[in-house]
């Protein structure tokens, strides 16, 4: 029997690789002869760099860059040398977790550091960049990112725009002639799991800016500024960025990546699975075991278990999902790539205890899964 173990991280508890290793431990506790292949996964959000580095035997490279408010922060990106690919999480340079709650202000925050990470990756001579754009603290439509890469985005007096979504009110000219020429030779994929437009009631400011520290007045200012940004983009680049699906993601960084760098916005899990040549890893597999920290009704929307599960089911490979907890609507996953799901919690306990014991609980559950499977698989050890 061959089993592919391909989970997401159990956030706050286990990385995707650690989760996979503990699932494998439980399988081997039952029968050491079972072939187990490990493939840590992610969906483009937090943990994507670590998962892809673990899955592709890459390395994490640390880099000091400009943080959301202009201060220096130590960020990181992943280098997958064999694939000639860099993996970036914009949140590592421009993310909400880098700011205290009182510091959150999308009028002032910038994506400049994300551009610096892209530049650092280009220095490695890579051919492809995968950018996860979740968790942003920004609402500057990627202007800071583009400026870090050489773009001249200026006001009517020819001065570079200042950091932050507030400065978009002054945008007058976009000159990409000085943009880093290496970008033309690189494929850029942005992991984007929302389809929000750039502005309007479903746009970046109204939907996401409040969680980044914006009050109602700030939201209105930011939305108007994104409209101004789009107007200038149409005039200068002949692109209506508001019509790009996902333009409003990460405070408009989705739009900025598309119009400035020519990035393709796609579902994160699809980018990851394609990058890892997932179908080839399914060859000869009898079962897929996947999972994540919380499995619920939202798991059908671009999450690892259902994304991986759908591909396995197309090849008639049974799929089992394991989770740290189960939430409302979890039964929906049974129509979206999952044949059965299980929770690691085996007794009443508080969250801290469950997190502490998650490696043991995951291994124990996996062993019991194998014992159950053995009842219906001819020739399997019991």
Automatic annotation (TrEMBL):
Q: Which GO terms describe its biological process?
A: organic acid phosphorylation
Which Pfam families does the annotation name? Gly_kinase
Keyword tRNA-binding found:
no
- Please name the InterPro entries in this protein's record: Glyc_kinase_flavodox-like_fold, Glycerate_kinase, Glycerate_kinase_RE-like, Glycerate_kinase_sf
Keyword Transferase listed? The answer is yes
Spell out the molecular function terms from Gene Ontology: glycerate kinase activity
The broad enzyme category this protein falls into is transferase
Superkingdom of source: Bacteria
Keywords attached to this Swiss-Prot or TrEMBL record, sorted alphabetically, are: Kinase, Transferase
By its UniProt entry, which Gene3D superfamilies does this protein fall under? Glycerate kinase, domain 1, Glycerate kinase, domain 2
The catalytic activity of this protein is classed by the Enzyme Commission as 2.7.1.31
Family of the protein in this entry:
Belongs to the glycerate kinase type-1 family.
What is this protein's name? Glycerate kinase
Organism in which the protein naturally occurs: Halanaerobium hydrogeniformans
